[in-house]
Amino acid sequence: MLKISKKADYALMALQHIASVQFGDVTPGRVVNTKEIAEEYNIPLELLAKVLQVLSKNGLIESHNGPKGGYLLARSARQITIAQILESIEGPLAITDCSHEKDGDYCMQREHCNIRTPLLKIQDSIYQLLNNMTLGDMMGGTPLITIQSPSAQGVER
Amino acid sequence: MLKISKKADYALMALQHIASVQFGDVTPGRVVNTKEIAEEYNIPLELLAKVLQVLSKNGLIESHNGPKGGYLLARSARQITIAQILESIEGPLAITDCSHEKDGDYCMQREHCNIRTPLLKIQDSIYQLLNNMTLGDMMGGTPLITIQSPSAQGVER
DNA sequence: TTTAGTGCGACCATATTGATCGGAGATCAT
DNA sequence: ATGATCTCCGATCAATATGGTCGCACTAAA
Fold first, then answer.
1. Looking at residues B44-57, what average pLDDT do you find?
2. Which of A139, B130, B152, B156 has its CA 20 to 30 A from that of B110?
3. How far is the CA of B54 from the C1' of C8 (A)?
4. Which residues of B spanning 45-104 put their CB closer than 7 angstroms to strand C?
5. CA B100 – CA B102 distance, rounded (Å)
């Protein structure tokens, strides 16, 4: 339930690794290739490659071809949010379908739906939570932001 | 991504309906059967039945057999949290596998895993969010606010 | 006893995810 | 400049999870 996919897991691990290499003290600025990450974390090489390709396509990382090539963060670790990473891999994060109804399909329950509004509230809260936490926060053991439940302010209608 | 299942959706709708009938002004205390809910919200009857059975088994609602039978909330709407409902249908809500490693299988990345702690933090925050909101919060008599949201795609990168 | 209803289990279809393969493009060494 | 090698990249296949269905046993009221 509410589980994130393995691809998303791999993406988070890879980005964390790239960030720690790029901004670490040992070899700052070094590019890191797919094989290195795959071996370090026991991730299937090809699958990880695919994940990195998507991240690259979505502008989170930059790719450098050829020998000595590899990946590089496209911007600072503090400017990459968890929400961006997850959405990049798995599309818009919506806990319910009816938040992005295209004209073709719209849910049969819609007209009498009684849970739409509360669900959208919850969805929004989760998004804020994920969007307020950056890749940078995941690194140096920096304490996370604490979210406050929306039930505190009740559910408007 | 992070989408909740249809079964969970149905569970929420059904419980909301039962609660509104039970504590409503029209026919307070009336039991409501599966067919009524299924027709009201266009939910496949058998699937809804299965969902209600699970909810009953987990002590969220009480079932009454025979003619004039049906379902009834097992306790007050304010004592039933969204988290309880979701967990009842889909098992423990964990965004990552490694939060409940049984001895048999544990993740291959574990030893070098760099994202475990942050993920557990996020998971905890989401759980608090869902556990602080009750079925009672979801109700309130004015359903069906139709939100035309053209800004639904307003996420820039 | 009949009838309307729930309880319960097994079963199939489909959608999503996980994993794999072969090729294209770019860079370094010679 | 040219070949060889290493990387990125797109399309394809398999496994798993989910959504949905069917049939029958059990219970209680009329």
1. 93
2. B130
3. 11
4. 46, 49-50, 52-53, 56-57, 63-71
5. 6
pLDDT per position as a tens digit, A48-77:
999 999 999 899 999 888 888 889 999 999
pLDDT of residue B45: 92
Which has the minimum average pLDDT: A45-49, A131-135, B96-100, B131-135? Answer: B96-100
Of A38, A30, A40, residue with least CA distance to A64: A30
What is the CA A59 to C1' C29 distance in angstroms?
Answer: 32
Task: Flag if B91 and A1 touch (Cβ within 8 Å).
Answer: yes
Does the C-beta of A69 come within 7 A of strand D? yes
Cβ of B20 within 8 Å of Cβ of A113? The answer is no
Residue B141: Cβ-neighbour burial (10 angstroms; 0-12, 13-18, 19+): exposed
Report yes or no: B38 and B51 within 8 Å, Cβ to Cβ: no
Residues facing residue A71 across a β-bridge: A32, A63
Domains, chain A, with CATH or none: 6-95+103-145 (1.10.10.10)
